[in-house]
């Protein structure tokens, strides 16, 4: 099995390292059929998991993500992949792959919410900035892609501890999550912003109000200016 897996890794790496280009080109290329593409999902997952852990390369890992992305519709496969790919977060050191995994994690969150939410709670207090970002972005990702949501209180309880996080990419993720939260729970989110507007960073605030109408935007801009200036 190990020799076979190594052969498959060599096949992937040889092909992908011959490529150049951008994400759309790599996404198109990810549809290539490998000699192992006919194997069961679980067997293919083993191969892509090994690649993720042995190759510290953005483009190679992106193709491991593309494999997952093709398997987001079957609940059985989402359940099966979770104990494997939850470990992938440990290798994350950039926002691109972090947010790619968020797309997968948020789907699994709908299937096994208690288990995934417990992991997000752990990441929320981690010293690693990418785990803290993941604890936010995975909650909703882009809310339009989800059918089921956690409660407002569950989501906001992971936002509040990171309101004053010093890391830029955590603040970007926090603003993103507030923006999507407003889409799902508009009134509670506006109440939350009203309460915490002094603590919300300028980075997060700008993103949080992106999808609001002009009246709401102007209201919160004026409120934030007033409260911040009164500090």
Structure description:
The chain has helices at about 1-15, 25-30, 40-55, 60-70, 75-85, 95-110, 115-125, 130-140, 150-160, 170-185, 185-195, 200-210, 215-230. By secondary structure, the chain is an all-alpha fold. The protein has 2 domains: about 1-70, no CATH class; about 90-230, Alpha Horseshoe (Leucine-rich Repeat Variant). Helix 3 runs parallel beside helix 5 (about 75-85), helix 6 crosses helix 8 and helix 7 (about 115-125) runs antiparallel to helix 8.
List the helices and strands and how they pair.
Blueprint: H1 2-16, H2 23-29, H3 41-54, H4 58-69, H5 75-85, H6 95-111, H7 113-124, H8 129-140, H9 152-159, H10 168-184, H11 186-196, H12 202-208, H13 214-229
Which percent band covers the strand fraction? Answer: under 5%
Q: Outline, from the CA principal axes?
A: elongated
What's the CATH first level of the largest domain? Mainly Alpha
- Beginning-to-end CA distance, first to last residue: 64 Å
Biggest sheet record: none
What is the average per-residue confidence, as pLDDT, rounded to a whole number?
A: 94
What's the CATH architecture name of the largest domain?
A: Alpha Horseshoe
Number of strands: 0
Would you identify the regions where 5 or more consecutive residues have pLDDT less than 50? none
Roughly how many Å is the radius of gyration? 20 Å
In CATH, the topology of the largest domain is named Leucine-rich Repeat Variant
Summarize the helix and strand pattern as letters: HHHHHHHHHHHHH
How many helices? 13
């Amino acid at each position: 099995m190990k020799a076979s897996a190594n052969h498959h890794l060599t096949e992937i790496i040889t092909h992908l390292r011959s490529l150049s280009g951008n994400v759309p080109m790599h996404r198109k290329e990810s549809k290539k059929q490998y000699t192992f593409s006919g194997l069961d999902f679980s067997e293919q997952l083993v191969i892509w998991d090994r690649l993720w852990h042995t190759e510290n390369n953005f483009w190679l890992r992106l193709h491991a993500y593309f494999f997952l992305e093709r398997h987001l519709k079957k609940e059985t496969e989402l359940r099966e992949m979770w104990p494997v790919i939850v470990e992938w977060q440990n290798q994350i050191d950039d926002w691109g792959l972090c947010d790619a995994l968020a797309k997968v994690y948020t789907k699994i969150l709908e299937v096994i919410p208690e288990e995934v939410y417990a992991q997000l709670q752990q990441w929320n207090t981690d010293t690693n900035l990418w785990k803290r970002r993941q604890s936010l972005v995975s909650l909703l990702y882009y809310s339009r892609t989800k059918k089921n949501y956690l409660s407002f209180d569950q989501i906001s309880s992971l936002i509040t501890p990171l309101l004053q996080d010093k890391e830029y990419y955590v603040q970007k993720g926090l603003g993103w999550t507030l923006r999507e939260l407003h889409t799902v729970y508009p009134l509670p989110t506006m109440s939350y912003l009203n309460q915490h507007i002094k603590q919300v960073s300028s980075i997060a605030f700008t993103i949080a109000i992106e999808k609001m109408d002009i009246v709401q935007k102007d209201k919160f801009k004026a409120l934030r200016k007033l409260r911040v200036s009164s500090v």
